[in-house]
């Protein structure tokens, strides 16, 4: 048979698909719900939503339903209600937001983004908004409102930098989290997020790696390490009674193997017994980005695994928001835990302090700079530990400016890694690219899987010649076995 | 979900052009996708080596292999894989091999 | 005698309305059982001190100017409330004329700072785009309050007008973005305790970090 695609042969397939799509945002009139425009993520279909217990809400019913959900949200989250009430439109956040700096879209100023919700809140839930809507800029909730929500709350990386600069401390990330939750209950979720979500429910990791594939990959990496070092460095799986349950990012099994082997070398050198759990090889918890029930389900899986394997502590791998959810939400969800949850960066830092591992900085002679992932620096106290490690395992470490709690986001935060958003993602990464360029670094250390997926593309796009590596990648090179 | 009419079968693909049902994959479809999605007029022996390796791995394990393993087992380095498939191993090679799109933090 | 009673009533109304507005939010306290990474108390202390300094809050000279202008205006507002309280007592007349003129001049400057803010809001494209009518009226009402305070300090004959305007301001306040006068302190507290608990702020090297 010869390959003769009959339909519109000669036109690029993307154009064919685009031609079938309607022109506007989240409407679902025709066969394909998704527009060709790339300023917002592709929508999940009803089939994609089903595993997550979410459903489409009819377009006609959406505004009324959205209003109900907004009402529920203000009674559910204290911060949400406070943030709605307190803003004075001073504009201090505008120049601090990489999303606004990169896209130059005024609606991406944190204050303007929050106003997309605030104007509706005012209209229905405040006296002034009900009686004098024009005075306070209160607006009716319409289909256009919901379209704007979908677009702009998915151009926010939930990085919380604006919170640090707001005179009140309004955390727009919390507003984005709340509004994405509302959108999810309207059935408006990026397909990228539902695909990750259903992988997590099915396999316990974002990529959907089943146990046999995990074992095969682990075996491959053990052989690689043997070849490289001549030593038998194990990557144990499901080993009951190990001291540590190491919970990596599943991307370590696909694109960042050096992060995983770095951890294996660290535990091997320190003589710590450790294990992976085939039930959960995923620090990331995308539930934080659109669905609290998913967040809880994934968290329960982690704690269940740790108890089953009777470990003494959980060590989180290189992931930003995952660390935040494990460290800061686990005990609120489950109550007091019998084991602590630590981060691989503080683990490495502690082992170096105790001289349980030795390192040779000559292994990393290049100039290295450090990118503070938002959720490590602004939500979880992993700020100085990676720096302490880097100063010992590299020869030429430079701080970039701004850094720590003022660091700019990579532009992929909150799960904005979908290909269709590439143009926006590159704009979101611009502020970071500028910071990195100024350091003249050859290696950019970014201990977060999302950052590691986003930054190489951003750096290439903005012509910054730098390699992106995890912290454990560099440690793995420097460690003396 | 968009479809492409291919011979007398309708093949469902997602917006990124990934075939939804890996069982529908044929070598002809791979040639077609190579032209449409990657701009490749013909597939060389090396292309097929990667494509068949990916398919075999997928059929055994239900997922795409680690990129480093793909390189090692085919004997091609990553740079060469990018030469073969301009969109890279995940977005290019997996698509032509009819695998689902690798998702997650990649 | 009518005006002081009106001011007091408006004050009580304002406070009650704000408390009613704030209560549901405060009642929504959800427990956070996570083991602290840092100190919530230190975070609160930071939020009310170093965290409010211009170099931690702002960046760039352009913003530093806006900061000084805004800070000055707010000092003037709080001073005007003090003046309002004094006009309800017999003590204001006891101050020497020189001191009163000095205070009046200072208040006039802060009033000007507020009006400059209004001008900024009007002039800057972005600020104008995100402003709603109330953003302007609120500044006008408050700047007039500060201006009248200045006038009342210098010319006691204008005290009645100042008090009447104050009563109006207090009645207007809960319906306006001006409610932030009350919410601010809660917000800073929440911000500080949240970031403090998570060990983000204050961290030992924050002063050199930019």
Report what the structure shows.
- The complex is a heterotrimer of chains A (481), B (106) and C (210).
- In chain A, 50% of the residues lie in helices and 5% in strands.
- Chain A has 481 residues and is mostly helical.
- In chain A, helix 23 links the parallel strand 7 (443-445) and strand 8 (467-469).
- In chain B, a hairpin with a 2-residue loop joins strand 1 and strand 2 (9-12).
- Chain B starts with a strand and ends in a 10-residue tail after the last helix.
- By secondary structure, chain B is mainly alpha-helical.
- In chain C, helix 1 packs parallel to helix 8, helix 4 crosses helix 5 and helix 5 packs antiparallel against helix 7 (133-154).
- The longest helix of chain C has 27 residues, at 61-87.
- Helices cover 73% and strands 0% of the residues of chain C.
- Chain C has helices at 2-27, 40-48, 54-57, 61-87, 97-123, 125-130, 133-154, 159-172, 180-197.
- Chain C is globular, with a radius of gyration of 20 Å.
- Chains A and C meet through helix 4, helix 6, helix 8, helix 10 and helix 17 of A and helix 1, helix 6, helix 7 and helix 9 of C.
Which key features would you list for this structure?
heterotrimer, A: 481 residues, mainly alpha, Fumarate Reductase Iron-sulfur Protein, Chain B, domain 2, Rossmann fold, 3 domains, four-stranded parallel sheet, 8 strands, globular, disordered N terminus, B: 106 residues, Arc Repressor Mutant, subunit A, two-stranded antiparallel ribbon
Oligomer: heterotrimer
What's the CATH H-level superfamily name of chain B? DsrC protein, C-terminal domain
Termini Cα gap of chain B: 23 Å
Q: How many beta-strand runs of chain A?
A: 8
The CATH first-level class of the largest domain in chain A comes to Alpha Beta
User: What integer value in Å does the Rg of chain A equal?
Assistant: 23 Å
Assign the structural class of chain A, choosing from mainly alpha, mainly beta, alpha/beta, alpha+beta, or little secondary structure: mainly alpha
Q: Say how many strands of chain B there are.
A: 2
Strand content of chain B: 5-15%
């Amino acid at each position: 048979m010869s390959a003769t695609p009959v339909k519109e042969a000669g036109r690029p397939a993307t154009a064919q698909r685009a031609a079938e799509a309607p022109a506007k945002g989240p409407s679902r009139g025709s066969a394909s719900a998704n527009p060709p425009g790339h300023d917002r993520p592709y929508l999940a279909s009803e089939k994609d939503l089903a595993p997550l217990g979410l459903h489409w809400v009819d377009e006609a019913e959406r505004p009324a339903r959205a209003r109900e959900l907004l009402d529920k949200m203000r009674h559910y989250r204290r911060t949400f209600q406070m943030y709605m009430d307190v803003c004075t439109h001073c504009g201090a956040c505008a120049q601090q937001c990489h999303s606004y700096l990169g896209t130059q879209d005024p609606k991406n100023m944190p204050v303007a983004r929050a106003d997309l919700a605030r104007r509706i809140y005012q209209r229905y839930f405040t006296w002034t908004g009900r009686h004098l809507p024009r005075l306070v800029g209160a607006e009716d909730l319409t289909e256009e409102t919901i379209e704007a929500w979908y677009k702009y709350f998915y151009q926010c990386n939930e990085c919380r930098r604006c919170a640090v600069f707001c005179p009140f401390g309004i955390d727009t990330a919390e507003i984005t989290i709340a509004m994405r939750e509302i959108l999810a209950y309207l059935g408006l979720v990026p397909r990228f997020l539902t695909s990750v979500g259903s992988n997590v429910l099915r396999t316990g990791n974002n990529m959907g790696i089943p146990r046999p594939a995990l074992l095969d990959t682990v075996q491959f990496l053990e052989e690689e390490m043997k070849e490289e070092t001549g030593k038998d460095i194990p990557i144990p799986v499901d080993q009951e009674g190990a001291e540590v349950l190491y919970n990596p990012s599943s991307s370590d099994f696909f694109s960042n193997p050096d992060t995983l082997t770095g951890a294996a070398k660290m535990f091997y050198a320190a003589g710590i017994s450790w294990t992976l759990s085939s039930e959960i090889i995923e620090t990331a918890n995308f539930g934080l980005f659109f669905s609290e029930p998913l967040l809880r389900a994934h968290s329960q899986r982690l704690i269940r695994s740790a108890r089953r394997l009777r470990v003494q502590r959980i060590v989180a791998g290189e992931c930003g928001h995952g660390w935040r959810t494990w460290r800061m939400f686990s005990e609120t969800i489950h109550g007091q835990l019998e084991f602590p949850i630590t981060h691989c960066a503080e683990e490495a830092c502690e082992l170096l302090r105790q001289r349980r591992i030795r390192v040779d900085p000559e292994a990393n002679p290049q100039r290295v700079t450090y990118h503070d992932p938002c959720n490590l620096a602004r939500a979880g106290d992993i700020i100085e530990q990676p720096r302490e490690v880097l100063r010992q395992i590299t020869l030429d470490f430079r701080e970039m400016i701004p850094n720590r709690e003022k660091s700019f986001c990579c532009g992929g935060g909150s799960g904005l890694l979908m290909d269709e958003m590439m143009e926006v993602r590159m704009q979101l990464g611009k502020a970071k690219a500028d910071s990195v360029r100024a350091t003249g670094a050859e290696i950019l250390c970014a201990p977060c899987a999302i950052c590691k997926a986003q930054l190489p593309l951003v750096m290439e796009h903005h012509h910054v010649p730098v390699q992106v590596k995890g912290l454990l990648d560099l440690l793995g090179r420097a460690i003396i076995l | 979900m968009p479809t492409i009419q291919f011979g007398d079968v309708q093949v469902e693909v997602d917006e990124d052009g990934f075939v939804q049902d890996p069982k529908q994959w044929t070598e002809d479809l791979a040639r077609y996708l190579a032209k449409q999605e990657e701009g490749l007029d013909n597939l060389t022996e090396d292309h097929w080596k990667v494509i068949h390796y990916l398919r075999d791995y997928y059929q055994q394990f239900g997922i795409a292999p680690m990129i480093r393993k793909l390189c090692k087992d085919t004997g091609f380095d990553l740079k060469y894989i990018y030469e073969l498939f301009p969109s890279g191993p995940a977005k290019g090679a997996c698509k032509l091999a009819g695998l689902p799109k690798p998702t997650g933090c990649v | 005698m009518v005006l002081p009673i009106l001011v007091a009533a408006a004050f009580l109304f304002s406070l009650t309305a704000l408390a009613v507005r704030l209560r549901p939010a405060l009642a929504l306290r959800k427990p956070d059982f996570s083991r602290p990474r840092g100190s919530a108390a230190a975070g609160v202390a930071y939020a009310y001190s170093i965290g409010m300094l211009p170099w931690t809050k702002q960046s760039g000279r352009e913003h530093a100017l806006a900061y000084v202008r805004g800070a000055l205006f707010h000092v003037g507002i709080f001073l005007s409330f003090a003046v309002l309280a004094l006009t309800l007592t017999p003590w204001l007349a006891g101050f020497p004329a020189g001191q009163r003129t000095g205070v009046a001049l200072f208040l006039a400057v802060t009033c000007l700072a507020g009006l400059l803010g209004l001008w900024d809001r009007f002039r800057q494209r972005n600020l104008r785009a995100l402003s709603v009518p109330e953003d302007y009226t609120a500044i006008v009402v408050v700047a007039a309050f500060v201006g009248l305070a200045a006038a009342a300090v210098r010319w006691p004959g204008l005290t009645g007008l100042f008090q009447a305007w104050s009563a109006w301001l207090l009645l207007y306040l809960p319906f306006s973005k001006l409610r932030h006068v009350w919410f601010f302190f809660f917000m800073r507290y929440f911000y500080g305790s949240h970031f403090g608990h998570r060990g983000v702020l204050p961290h030992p090297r924050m002063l050199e970090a930019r």
